[in-house]
Amino acid sequence: MTNVLFVCLGNICRSPMAEGLFKKLISDQNLQAKINVDSAGISDEEEGNQPHPGAQAEMAKHGLDISNLRSRPITTADFHWADLIIGMDSQNIYYLKQMADSSDQKKIHLCLDIVEKEAGQDIPDPWYDHKFGRTYQQLSRALPKWLDYVKSNLH
Ligand code: 4NP
């Protein structure tokens, strides 16, 4: 099994959207028995809450239902569970690297680093400008490449 964890600040916008989309890509390739996916937030501000209505609406446009997801803060156990930890912006990466043991540092990656022309760029927080379509498009460029990465590097 390979365990993949998506992380953002609140775990109600970007990372649950990533979880929902990555699960769809995994099921399209019949890889459910090989890859687990979860998401978490740096902050506990939204703990227990559903994904933002705008995030749910954007995913629904693409036939994806993420209404069952609930926000939760990342814990130290997540760093042991995960083989790959994908953060959405440089602030997420900063906090993840602060929290992780030295042996887990290499698991941490910035989401858009896998997209050659967008490497180093953040996926901005749609919580402020409600541009959930932009978030979906960014994730849909990066996540198929992360799935290829998992298939070729972690199995
Ligand atoms: P997310 O968006 O990190 O993409 O889930 C946010 C959601 C909530 C907050 C910040 C970002 N907040 O400050 O509560």
TrEMBL record:
All residue ranges annotated as the Phosphotyrosine protein phosphatase I domain in the record: 2-149
Keywords: Hydrolase, Protein phosphatase
An MF annotation (GO) of this entry: protein tyrosine phosphatase activity
SUPFAM superfamilies (UniProt xref): Phosphotyrosine protein phosphatases I
Active site, per annotation: C8, R14, D125
Name of the coding gene: yfkJ
Protein name: protein-tyrosine-phosphatase
EC number: 3.1.3.48
Organism (species): Lentilactobacillus hilgardii (strain ATCC 8290 / DSM 20176 / CCUG 30140 / JCM 1155 / KCTC 3500 / NBRC 15886 / NCIMB 8040 / NRRL B-1843 / 9)
Hydrolase found in the keyword field: yes
Pfam families xrefs: LMWPc (PF01451)
Reaction catalysis annotation: O-phospho-L-tyrosyl-[protein] + H2O = L-tyrosyl-[protein] + phosphate
Enzyme class (EC, first level): hydrolase
Family: Belongs to the low molecular weight phosphotyrosine protein phosphatase family.
